[in-house]
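tmp note - Molybdopterin molybdenumtransferase
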Amino acid sequence: MPTDSSSAQEASRAGQATTACGCDSVPVGAKGLAPLSSALSALRECCPVMPVEQVSVSKAAGRVLAEDVYAELDVPPADNSQMDGYCARVADIGDGAWLPISQRIAAGQPTSPLASASCARLFTGAEIPEGADVVVMQEEVTLRENEDGTTEAWLPGPRIPGDNIRRQGRDVTRGTRLIAAGTRLDAAMLGLLCGQGLSRVSVRRKVRVALFATGDELIEPGQPLEPGQIYNSNRVMLSQMLSDFGADVVLAPLNVADTFEATRDALATAAEQADLIVTCGGVSVGEEDHVRPAIEALGSLDLWRLAIKPGKPLALGRILNTQGDSVRVVGLPGNPVSSWVGGWLFLRPILGEMLDCDALRTLRSLRVRSAFSANTAIRQDHLRVTLTPADDGQLEAHAFPDQNSAVLSSCVGAEALAVIPPHAQISPGDSVECLWLES
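out:
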């Protein structure tokens, strides 16, 4: 598997990579390393947006809404009681009054206009009868039985009109935009959709992703390790990240042999089945790193090698399948942390483009106070940090002590990536930018 150490061989001169779709070439800087901004620009160019499909609302969690949804109903559809109690007219209650109970109303039952100088027993969610303008909670009410068998209720006063009443349209007003296109649907949004009586909704089809790792040293968990072998941790990790970001992994072979032919054939097969190809490993400069030349043999390379840490080896390219479609390829480095960071920095935004979802296109940035020291050379660093409020209320970023790109435990529990610019020296107390990790 490739390494991501700063001592890896650097390119001897700068250059430019051209794209296969007429996009601008990607500028590269010192020692042939492209900045992160160039990589993100290249990543987003010419990405196809997924088609629209109808799915059941009950199965739409995490899906990206394809069309604005407007409310066709007021919610609630009529004034209703927000508690169990008794409704009446404020004028009839005055400073307090005994009022006969003229009707009993449960949620979902039709009502009749409230008789003059009377009250109605009603329950949470029950519709307010015409004429009533206040609800008194049952704990404040005293009941008495009359000799004729009727019941009266003592409603203390004075009262305020509208007390304990949920007005029609308080939650949702008919005609307003309920949820905007491009929104990832969560549980509360599904509730809003169901509250409008919708059973199906238009969403973007999930991005079909082909994911495979390269490396003869990789074996699957559960198998005995032979000398020189390691367990394949990246395949399941990246598969879960892709799923969290709204993709559907449709092809994930256990491993691809470290040969040019096997890598080329795997890429060609993936291009026939997937909207996006993600590879892990084989993108560096070693003799056993075949992803880059395989991409170039089947299509074109947009970008290779970035001025970031971890994750300098990165291959962005395109492969033309037999249907004439250009399928994007993202080749991540094989070191576990480099793959994990690359998932956040590159896989999430490209899925945001393909799903037309702004929430996925960028990670939220916030400035916090550093609780660590750091120094950078020519590459921008991304430290795994947790965020903790200090005694003065300010957020502090605490870096995992070992930030090596092979130490996957630095990612467990990480809440953000602290972005350290090139040629920077950070001391405790300095302000640093952090990218909040939220799927």
